[in-house]
Design a protein that fits this description.
Elements: E1 5-6, E2 13-14, E3 23-29, E4 34-37, E5 41-45, H1 55-65, E6 68-73, E7 90-96, H2 102-108, H3 123-136, E8 149-152, E9 157-159, H4 164-167, E10 174-177, H5 180-186, E11 189-190
Parallel strand pairs: 5-7, 9-11
Antiparallel strand pairs: 1-2, 3-4, 3-6, 4-5, 6-7, 8-9, 8-10
Length: 199
């Protein structure tokens, strides 16, 4: 839990100011989209939905960042929580030495889904890149069979990951379903908004 006082009228936590690292050596990435930096600093990529949609996405991310120096940039929208999530992971935009913008690259190459639950300064740009990746059939969008379904633990409805309703599912309530057969076995029904089983 974050240090600080919880505002009575909301779930936002006011975090005390603590030094924020500017860079570090990335050891590896986890499937939940977290980067592990030297000193066990954990970084959550702003604008990237968690967990990553496929194992292929994790491989792509590790090929991009593993054992490389990375630089961190913070978003003013997260200043109120001192740029940390409720797991104490830093919320950051990540860059490589050559200027590669890691958050953007994941979306651009079709290996990430945009997280729109919270405001961030590149949200419109990331959504445009996501649409381009879908149109170009990049990454997970290259084959409909690679695209996982998303569901909530509570309502038993299956969505496409880009469905507005799926984007609003809280991380701790979200589950990834790999196929229609798996969804049927679990007793989940298709969303009438995004029609995930549409050919």
């Amino acid at each position: 839990c974050l240090f600080g006082l919880s505002m009575a009228c909301s779930s936002i936590v006011i975090a005390e100011d603590r030094p924020l690292p500017d860079y570090g050596l990335c050891k590896k990435a986890h499937g939940d989209g977290t980067l592990i930096l030297s000193g066990n600093v954990r970084v959550s990529l702003i604008g990237i939905d968690k967990p990553l949609p496929t194992e292929e996405s994790l491989i792509f991310l590790n090929n991009l960042v593993q054992n490389k120096d990375v630089w961190l940039e913070y978003d003013p929208n997260n200043k109120i929580v001192n740029h940390r999530n409720n797991h104490e992971h830093l919320l950051a935009y990540v860059y490589l030495e050559d200027g590669t913008f890691v958050n953007k690259t994941l979306i651009w190459h079709g290996y990430g889904i945009v997280d729109t639950r919270y405001p961030f300064k590149f949200s419109k740009k990331f959504l445009r890149l996501e649409r381009h990746a879908q149109k170009d059939k990049s990454g997970i969008w290259s084959d409909p069979g690679k695209i996982p379904f998303v569901a909530s633990k509570t309502d038993r409805i299956v969505h496409l990951p880009t469905c507005p309703r799926a984007r609003n599912i809280r991380i701790n309530q979200k589950i990834i379903i790999k196929s229609r057969a798996e969804a049927d076995t679990m007793g989940y029904s298709p969303c009438t908004n995004c029609a995930p089983y549409r050919e």
